[in-house]
């Protein structure tokens, strides 16, 4: 059959029609068996696929998670027999006109992902809401009824006296795909299954404490798939296919991203959903918290003890009940507790010690609070109760409501000196909710339709409003739940109210790695878990078995984007575990100091996260994509570009096996021993050692002066440690540490390269400048595993150091 090539117009969405196929300047639209399929190239390697019934609304609303707008992409559309093909410079998309199947391939024809034949379902549903019309309180009951009506054909309200019936017409939507039998995929948010590979399971993706629902997976074949639906969604993977099924939606809508490898695909996901801004430097230091500090005097006393001991500390977190003990005052966002009656004095004391403060804020408000009453007047509270039952959750999709919440945070917290926000229970939590409660009309549709994306909007509330208040202080948010795009609002997450055991500890590693693969780079856990051992709930810090778990967890946290101690029952401050000289104290201090010595590496990695869509936590296949032995590993990870970390996750372990990827040589961080990749090594693990290996060719900057907080000393003298065995490069990044001037170019980059064969290091010309920049500094250059060392003075001009 003659091959017909559609000449594409320069004007976006211009149309040439042949039979049922409409060629457009970035893709095509075609109707197959009553389903309208639209294929759009947003970039040469990001494709949106949407499907609606002919009777439905073909023009989809703007995505709530995606911020990328379609760019002008050169796409060739052709039809041959019963196939329609759209090709960019990087990707081919082929549609079967008989079955509706969409396939994604390389330009050489190698299949990446294909839909299942006849794999689309749009099942019409009605959600019926009967409201008893009372001005004060509404009594709601509801049910789900199958129907043939299409969305948009809503039944008018029926006048039955005091009862009004509202019908929402929607679809249950699902799409099935066929993956290779042995294909490995990652992602789906944060799960507590202990699995790194997300094949062969069913997961209900619903935001919950300890579970973060993100309908996205990435394949070791170098692609990612984002399912753009915010209702409760079930992910299924069986030998018969892989599918997403959502309980409500107007269409099938998903994005296919092809980066070619794990790091590049994460970068594409950030391009699609928003880049992660720079965090303040001080947030990369050590954080102390517990449930909870019961007075402002206790908060100040903890900071004072750290300073007296000389143990570095940058942040302290105040958990709940600072608003008072009565549930009706829940989350008033005011210091109403008599034990916090002098908050300005508390902030003043902390400021003198250079300790920043983060505070717990919930999206639910007690019915006796001022903010509850203000939100209630605006109709911006959901009908169901939350935690506690005297509280209700606010409609974060309502911009006016978000403004009200920020007004309280600003007046009673931020203006006093609060530096960061701990957004708890942002799933959000509901108790005794009925199906009809989710018919509540938010500003972005029914709560049912947008439920899983709720946490993104709680972060948006702070990001938009704090930046409108000032650009002198960066937004920093720790939120218990998240969604695709949360990173663009300066938000990271933690793994929720987990319990203390080595088994739970081990599960946090794949939980964090899979979460990071979803494009949200800042993640951490409660060191030692939220719940300590049951038998020693209040005295766990004195129990040697728990101390061992805590110390092993502490070592792991040193190599997390945020290093934070927290938990209930037993206190968590370092001095609660014993005095200096006792192993449980000394090992904590050792790793806190290691963390602070790594600040230049951590901050420069943060810049790569912001500038290039990079990740702190990287599964080993991202480092060695062609080494299939890395694919299933769930208890090791890369921390940035240099460090391979293998936490000790077995009780009383005296050693552990570590797999070293075959892409290069590896150097033992503690001994300098050089090892070949592609092998399993057995590493001794006395209590002070977590196995850490450094990739050959790595250049790692260390501070040389001990500090008590991150910004105490300028980096006028740094060690550059070279790990030989391969060529390497690193960019040392600096800026003003805690404002947004870097967005206007107020920062510097120093490129550093190592030539392994010629054995010389080049410190390149400094690029950029900012107020307070160190113009002249010393670099102490050391070759790991040897006695080779040289000290050079650097003034911003290129230096070459030979060894």
Automatic annotation (TrEMBL):
<dbReference type="InterPro" id="IPR051816">
    <property type="entry name" value="Glycosyl_Hydrolase_31"/>
</dbReference>
<dbReference type="Pfam" id="PF17137">
    <property type="entry name" value="DUF5110"/>
</dbReference>
<keyword id="KW-0326">Glycosidase</keyword>
<dbReference type="GO" id="GO:0005975">
    <property type="term" value="P:carbohydrate metabolic process"/>
</dbReference>
<feature type="domain" description="Glycoside hydrolase family 31 N-terminal">
    <location>
        <begin position="37"/>
        <end position="236"/>
    </location>
</feature>
<keyword id="KW-0732">Signal</keyword>
<dbReference type="InterPro" id="IPR025887">
    <property type="entry name" value="Glyco_hydro_31_N_dom"/>
</dbReference>
<feature type="domain" description="Glycoside hydrolase family 31 TIM barrel">
    <location>
        <begin position="277"/>
        <end position="604"/>
    </location>
</feature>
<dbReference type="Pfam" id="PF21365">
    <property type="entry name" value="Glyco_hydro_31_3rd"/>
</dbReference>
<dbReference type="GO" id="GO:0030246">
    <property type="term" value="F:carbohydrate binding"/>
</dbReference>
<feature type="domain" description="DUF5110">
    <location>
        <begin position="718"/>
        <end position="785"/>
    </location>
</feature>
<dbReference type="InterPro" id="IPR000322">
    <property type="entry name" value="Glyco_hydro_31_TIM"/>
</dbReference>
<dbReference type="InterPro" id="IPR048395">
    <property type="entry name" value="Glyco_hydro_31_C"/>
</dbReference>
<dbReference type="InterPro" id="IPR013780">
    <property type="entry name" value="Glyco_hydro_b"/>
</dbReference>
<feature type="signal peptide">
    <location>
        <begin position="1"/>
        <end position="19"/>
    </location>
</feature>
<feature type="domain" description="Glycosyl hydrolase family 31 C-terminal">
    <location>
        <begin position="614"/>
        <end position="700"/>
    </location>
</feature>
<dbReference type="InterPro" id="IPR033403">
    <property type="entry name" value="DUF5110"/>
</dbReference>
<dbReference type="InterPro" id="IPR011013">
    <property type="entry name" value="Gal_mutarotase_sf_dom"/>
</dbReference>
<comment type="similarity">
    <text>Belongs to the glycosyl hydrolase 31 family.</text>
</comment>
<dbReference type="InterPro" id="IPR017853">
    <property type="entry name" value="GH"/>
</dbReference>
<dbReference type="Pfam" id="PF13802">
    <property type="entry name" value="Gal_mutarotas_2"/>
</dbReference>
<protein>
    <submittedName>
        <fullName>Alpha-glucosidases, family 31 of glycosyl hydrolases</fullName>
        <ecNumber>3.2.1.177</ecNumber>
    </submittedName>
</protein>
<keyword id="KW-0378">Hydrolase</keyword>
<dbReference type="GO" id="GO:0061634">
    <property type="term" value="F:alpha-D-xyloside xylohydrolase"/>
</dbReference>
<dbReference type="Pfam" id="PF01055">
    <property type="entry name" value="Glyco_hydro_31_2nd"/>
</dbReference>
């Amino acid at each position: 059959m003659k091959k017909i090539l559609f000449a594409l117009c320069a004007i976006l969405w211009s149309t040439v029609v042949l039979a049922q196929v409409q060629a457009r300047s970035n893709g095509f639209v075609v109707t197959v068996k009553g389903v309208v399929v639209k294929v759009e190239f947003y970039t040469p390697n990001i494709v949106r696929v949407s499907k609606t019934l002919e009777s439905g609304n073909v023009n989809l609303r703007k995505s709530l998670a995606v911020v990328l707008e379609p760019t002008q992409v050169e796409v060739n559309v052709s039809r041959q027999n019963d196939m329609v093909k759209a090709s960019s410079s990087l990707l081919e998309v082929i549609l079967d006109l008989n079955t509706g199947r969409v396939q994604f391939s390389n330009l050489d024809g190698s299949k990446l992902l294909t839909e299942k034949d006849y794999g689309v379902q749009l099942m019409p549903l009605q959600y019926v809401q009967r409201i008893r019309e009372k001005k004060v309180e509404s009594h709601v009951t509801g049910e789900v009824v199958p129907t043939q009506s299409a969305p948009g054909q809503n039944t008018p309200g029926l006048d039955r006296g005091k009862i009004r019936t509202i019908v929402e017409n929607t679809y249950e939507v699902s799409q099935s795909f066929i993956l290779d039998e042995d294909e490995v995929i990652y992602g789906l948010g944060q799960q507590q299954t202990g699995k790194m590979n997300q094949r062969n399971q069913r997961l209900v993706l619903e935001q919950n404490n300890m579970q973060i629902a993100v309908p996205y997976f990435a394949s070791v074949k170098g692609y990612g798939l984002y399912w753009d639906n915010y209702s409760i969604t079930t992910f299924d993977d069986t030998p018969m296919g892989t599918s997403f099924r959502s309980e409500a939606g107007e269409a099938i809508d998903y994005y296919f991203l092809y980066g070619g490898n794990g790091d590049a695909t994460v970068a594409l996901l950030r391009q699609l959903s928003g880049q992660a801004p720079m965090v303040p430097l001080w947030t990369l230091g050590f954080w102390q918290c517990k449930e909870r500090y019961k007075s402002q005097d206790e908060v100040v006393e903890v900071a004072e003890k750290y300073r007296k001991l000389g143990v570095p500390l940058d942040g302290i977190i105040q958990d709940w009940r600072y608003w008072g003990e009565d549930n009706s005052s829940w989350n008033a966002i005011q210091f109403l507790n008599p034990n916090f009656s002098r908050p300005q004095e508390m902030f003043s004391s902390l400021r003198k010690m250079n300790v920043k403060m983060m505070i717990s804020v919930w999206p639910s408000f007690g019915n006796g609070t001022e903010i509850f009453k203000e939100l209630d007047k605006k109709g911006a509270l959901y009908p169901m109760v939350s935690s506690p039952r005297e509280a209700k959750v606010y409609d974060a999709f309502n911009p006016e409501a978000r403004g009200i919440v920020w007004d309280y945070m600003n007046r009673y917290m931020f203006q006093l000196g609060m530096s960061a926000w701990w957004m708890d229970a942002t799933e959000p939590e509901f108790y005794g909710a009925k199906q009809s409660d989710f018919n509540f009309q938010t500003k972005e549709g029914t709560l049912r339709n947008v439920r899983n994306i709720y946490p993104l909007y709680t972060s948006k509330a702070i990001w938009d409003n704090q930046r409108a208040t000032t650009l002198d202080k960066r937004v920093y948010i720790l939120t218990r739940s998240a969604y695709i795009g949360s990173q663009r609002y300066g938000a990271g997450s933690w793994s929720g109210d987990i319990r203390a055991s080595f088994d739970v500890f081990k599960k946090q590693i794949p939980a964090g790695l899979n979460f990071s693969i979803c494009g949200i780079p800042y993640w951490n856990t409660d060191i030692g878990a939220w719940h300590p051992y049951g038998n020693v709930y209040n005295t766990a810090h004195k129990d040697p078995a728990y101390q061992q778990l805590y110390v092993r967890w502490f070592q792991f946290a040193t190599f997390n984007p945020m290093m934070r101690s927290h938990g209930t029952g037993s206190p968590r401050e370092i001095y609660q575990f014993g005095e200096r000289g006792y192993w449980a104290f000394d090992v904590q201090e050792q790793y806190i100091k290691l963390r602070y010595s790594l600040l230049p590496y951590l901050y420069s990695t943060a810049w790569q996260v912001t500038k290039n869509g990079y990740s702190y936590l990287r599964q080993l296949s991202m480092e060695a994509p062609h080494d299939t032995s890395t694919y299933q590993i769930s208890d090791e990870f890369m921390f940035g570009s240099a460090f391979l970390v293998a936490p000790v996750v077995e009780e009383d372990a005296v050693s552990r096996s570590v797999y070293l990827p075959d892409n290069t040589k590896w150097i033992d961080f503690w001994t300098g021993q050089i090892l070949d990749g592609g092998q399993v090594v057995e590493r001794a693990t006395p209590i002070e050692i977590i196995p850490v290996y450094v990739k050959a060719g790595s250049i790692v900057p260390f501070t040389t002066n001990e500090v008590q907080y991150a910004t105490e000393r300028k980096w006028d003298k740094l060690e550059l440690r070279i790990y030989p065995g391969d060529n390497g490069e690193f960019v040392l990044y600096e800026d003003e540490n805690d404002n947004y001037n870097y967005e206007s170019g107020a920062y510097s980059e120093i490129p550093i390269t190592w030539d392994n064969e010629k054995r010389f290091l080049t410190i390149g010309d400094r690029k950029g400048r900012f107020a307070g920049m160190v113009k002249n500094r010393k670099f102490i250059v050391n070759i790991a595993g040897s006695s080779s060392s040289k000290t050079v003075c650097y003034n911003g001009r290129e230096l070459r150091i030979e060894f």
